[in-house]
């Protein structure tokens, strides 16, 4: 959702690596930094973009905003002569209140054009505020909720004469979720920000400072960063960063160093970020496993700040997450229950919070999130903690809100995931869940050390096997190209193959806009089999033939049942599984692996299939329509 960038620093100087042509005016480092930041935040999903600039010689805020992609804004800027600036803000908007038009794009101006505000979130009491402000004489030019924040800030600034104090007062009037950034022509080297239930991170430079929705906004400029707490106002100038809370009392941010390189968020020669991120997956699995054992081979989780005695006393685990992360949670359930004999529930975060769940001090809530900012998951985390549960976050993004508000964190080390469709984060989340399961088994004595060591070795070998599946991708791509006119695709799986089937369906829906459903294969005869008619494509995830409980033979029977009714069967099966050959129209072979670890392999052909089919349809696989990478509103 909305991307936010702020910059305070010298008006000229070092150019960014992009060396963008931003029009006929003087060299514009603030504008260049902000545009580059917006480019790096494009992945969040947006439908309009804008910038606002102030400098020592500006009477009013200079600004530009355009509906559509960033290129539209850049074209607009290229035709304009902008004044030299020393502070700037930039915004990509994902429309909520008011359509994606030039007028509704941010920034929104007030104080006779001398103040500009950008916003991420939803201001829930905007209607009443708008009526009050209009009665006081404010003129509204957009349909957005954001514009009330601009007029409020102008009113408070007139009263306080200080932008930081005005922001504190403004925050006190707003309900809902917000990150706000503001610049004022009176303070040409200053950007003020406020955050309430919406992300904002500070980038610390030399003689310049940055603000961003996440570190991607400024990682090309600096890796030194500062997390802000909830309900804080931050003021940056080129040489200072000061933080206060919503009462105006001084507060501290927490410094950290971004552990990935700006290059990690570039396509690196691939056609899309998604393609690159699929290829990053062996590394993501390996990195998520790295450093998790001590010299004796015992699992050590340094970031897990929950007392071991508490973890031993846990009698229930609830995994909360959304979308792909929730499917990773389903895999976690199978593994943790099998290894640790603790009941595990998996719940969509937005459902969990509103159904009065039974949670107490013996419950461990595991919140899985790539971004660490998903609002539904964050709200569920808060609810769980209010009920006395301990919350462990499995998160990919440093400096994000969910780990900050959780009792403990287990970071996945997938690196930045830019494509909206999650791929490498999914594999890293599953890997982290396996590590957590084995750790709990070790702690609670459910498994012997040599059993844990064997599983860890098998897990370490998975990165190589994922690489093998990726290398076999051309056959999957060719199949996808041949199916570009499909209008409905079904996915079946059992046991851990079931969440893989659901994830395969989600990938196809979000990338190729094809109706796709994932079913538990055992459920087939209870209804979904009625969907099968002549030529209906059905993917089937087949478990290892060496697995337990006749799982394999049951799924082979399911393939026969749907084929007998005309389905075109696309089977994901383990190397050498001759039982499936007679019933498969296409087979995507994956290396042999223990049943519980198979999702790391089985999902990869499904990711490649969705990407290739969407590409064949001429769709943008990195930024599918209507979607945002990070869903920061409920
Ligand atoms: O950042 P999160 O992992 O919390 O995001 C959760 C979902 O929004 C996310 O996985 C979404 O379903 C992806 N677009 C799936 O590809």
Describe the structure.
This protein folds into 3 domains: 3-263, 4-Layer Sandwich (Glutamine Phosphoribosylpyrophosphate, subunit 1, domain 1); 267-460, Glucose-6-phosphate isomerase like protein, domain 1 (Rossmann fold, 3-Layer(aba) Sandwich); 466-634, Rossmann fold (3-Layer(aba) Sandwich). Helix content is 35%, strand content 22%. The protein contains 19 helices and 25 strands. The strands form 4 sheets. Strands 3-2-4-1-10-9-11-15 form an 8-stranded antiparallel beta sheet, with helices on one face. A hairpin with a 4-residue loop joins β5 and β6. α3 packs across α4 (146-160), α4 crosses α5 (163-173) and α16 (473-482) crosses α19 (599-616). The radius of gyration is 26 Å and the shape is globular. It starts with a strand and ends in an 18-residue tail after the last helix. It binds 5-amino-5-deoxy-1-O-phosphono-D-mannitol. Residues 322-325, 369-371, 374, 377, 420-422, 506, 510, 630-631 line the site of 5-amino-5-deoxy-1-O-phosphono-D-mannitol. 5-amino-5-deoxy-1-O-phosphono-D-mannitol binds at residues 322-325, 369-371, 374, 377, 420-422, 506, 510, 630-631. InterPro entries: GATase_2_dom (IPR017932), GFAT (IPR005855), GFAT_N (IPR047084), GlmS/AgaS_SIS (IPR035466), GlmS/FrlB_SIS (IPR035490), Ntn_hydrolases_N (IPR029055), SIS_dom (IPR001347), SIS_dom_sf (IPR046348). Residues 2-239 form the Glutamine amidotransferase type-2 domain.
